[in-house]
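Appendix B. One record, verbatim.
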Amino acid sequence: MDGTTKEAIAQRVRAVLAKIERAAARAGRSPASIRLVAATKSVSVQRIREAVEAGVRILGESRFQEALPKIEALGARDGVSWHFIGRLQRRKVRSTVGLFAMIHSVDSLDLAMEIDRRAAAAGVRQAVLLEVNVGGEPSKAGFTPSGVAEVVQGLDELTHLEVKGLMAIPPPAEQPEAARPYFREVRQLAHALAGQGLQRVRMDELSMGMSQDYEVAVEEGATLVRIGTAIFGMRPV
C-alpha cells in the first residue's frame, strides 16, 4: 500500500483513526476528545481531497505559500478547517490571521503580540497554541517550559488572541516510547498553567504526536495529532 491511490489513502485514514481509538481506550479517554490533523505539506490537492472523502476534517499546512492554492481549491468543503502547523514568520502574520482556524506554532511573545495586533486590525480573534521546545533543542523554536509560565499572564491581556493550549515536538528517536516523558511533561505543564486562574488563556488543547509516535501522544493526553506520512506516504522534505 503505497499511499498514492484513493483506496490506499482511505485505508490509511481508517487505520490511523482505529489506532487513535485504541490508544484512547488504553488511556481511558473518549476517542471523540482527539482530533486528527492531516499534515498536507507537499501533498497534491487531489490526494488531500481523497483524505477528506475518507473522513479527515482538519488539514494542517506548514508553508503559507503552499497553503494558499490548496485553500482556494478546497475551501471549507464538508466542514473542513485549516490549521497552520509550521513555523510562522512575522511578515506572514497579516495574511495568516483569519485564514486558518488555528495556528499551532506561536513560539515567542513578539509573534503572539503581532498576531494579536493583526487580528485586532482584521476584527477577528485568532486561536493559537504556544509551541514548547520541550527537549531544549537548539535547532527548534519555541518557549522553554519555564518561559511559557513567564509569558502567560501577559498573553492573558491580549484581547484578540485566543490561546487554546500547547504544541510540542519531542526530540527525534527510533522508538515511540522515547517520546513519552516529553509528552507527559507537556501535559503536566498545561495542567499547571490551567491552575493559574487565567481569564483568556486556556489549556484545553495539546497538539502533540506525529506519524511515528501519535499513539503514545494520545495515551499521554494529546487532543490534536498531526499525521502526514502515515496517511500520504513519504514526501519530499
